Amino acid sequence: MKKILILATLFILLAIPALASAGTEIEFTQESKDEKDFLAGAAPKFNIQQIRQDPFPANPGELVEIYLRLENNGGEIWSPSFIMNLEHPFKLDLSSPSTKDYISLEAGERITLKYKIKVDASAAPDDYEVNFHIQAPNQFSYDYFFNLEVDDVTSKFDVAIDEISEEGVSVALSNTGKNTANSITVRIPEQESFEVLGLPSNIIGNLNSGDYTILTTQIAPRAEGETLTLFMEIDYTDTIGNRRTETREVAIPMTTQTVKGFNALENYIETGRKASDEGEGTSGWFYVTVIIIVAWGIFYWKHRKKHKRK
After folding, report:
1. Are residue 131 and residue 186 in the same domain, yes or no?
2. Where among 101, 118, 150 does a domain terminate?
């Protein structure tokens, strides 16, 4: 039991640094790109060892996490403050204060700071410079600079009804985004206007930017109206490996042709079910008939053999 506890403790101690270093390591400097003549002054007593960005790149309209590992290379520091200065297109999440204060830090002590940053949805793909400030009253004041990379890693989709027939509803799915969408699955969730008659999902695979595919689903209207809305969910993997879900609404006008197509689809499925039921019934009676014939044959054989002996 003691060995198990020791091994578990070692595993936890080794796992903590790995968790703190999630993401991609990014470079930093003490010289701003707009201040080429910047002088760092005396060697910093508090050094940044590593900065990591997760995810990399950051996606417009979403959160990005920044991890900073720092080490005190001087003596004991009193009341140090760590300040993340952000400008458009970034702002700190409400759960992440811009300033983190400590009472004191021992010589050689290391800390890891984490910031959650919201990227504006309008952010254009680029590297944006960020300022990180470290200070301690009457002791030191340092500025560090690093870039946050922003790029759109998502895909966009267009969905349209192609045809409605006895075979099903044909749906055209197009990748209208700039990136390849991987491992696509299209699902028809439970909804008020339509019921699923066949399988609720279609596995598509990958779609490059600009490509399209035709998928077939078997659904039937369960509501009335001139136009019904079909909800579809598109699951896919983006360019950095994140699984995403896009919801699309498809308006289906209930024209004479559309209603005719849905009726043909329902009749086709119902006919198939009846044929299946009849087939199962025939198969059952077949086995009963065979058993009766075999039993009668055995009885006849025994009766005839008995009659011959007499």
Report:
1. no
2. 150
CATH number, domain with residue 36: 2.60.40.770
Q: What is the pTM of this model?
A: 0.73
For 267, the 3-state DSSP assignment is: helix
Answer yes or no: is pLDDT of 306 > 90. no
* Stronger pLDDT, 138 or 158, i.e. the higher one: 158
**Helix H segments across the chain?**
2-20, 256-309
- Amino acid identity, residue 52? R
Q: Decide if 278 is inside a domain.
A: no
Nearest to 250 by CA among 156, 159, 157, 155: 159
Determine contact, residues 166/270, Cβ cutoff 8 Å: no
> Concatenated DSSP letters for 84-101?
EE--TTEEE-TTS-SEEE
Across residues 148-158, what is the average pLDDT?
97
Any domain includes 294: no
DSSP state, residue 226 = S
pLDDT in tens, 68-113: 999 998 889 999 999 999 999 999 999 999 999 999 999 999 999 9
Q: What CATH number should be reported for the domain holding residue 161? A: 2.60.40
Instruction: Specify the amino acid at residue 62.
Output: E
Q: CA distances (Å), 155 to each of 103, 163, 173, 180, 218, in order?
A: 47, 25, 12, 7, 26
Percent of the chain as helix, strand, coil, to the nearest 5: 25, 45, 30
Q: Are residue 92 and residue 161 in the same domain, yes or no?
A: no
Is residue 70 within 8 A of residue 49, CB to CB? The reply is yes
* Structural domains of the chain, count: 2
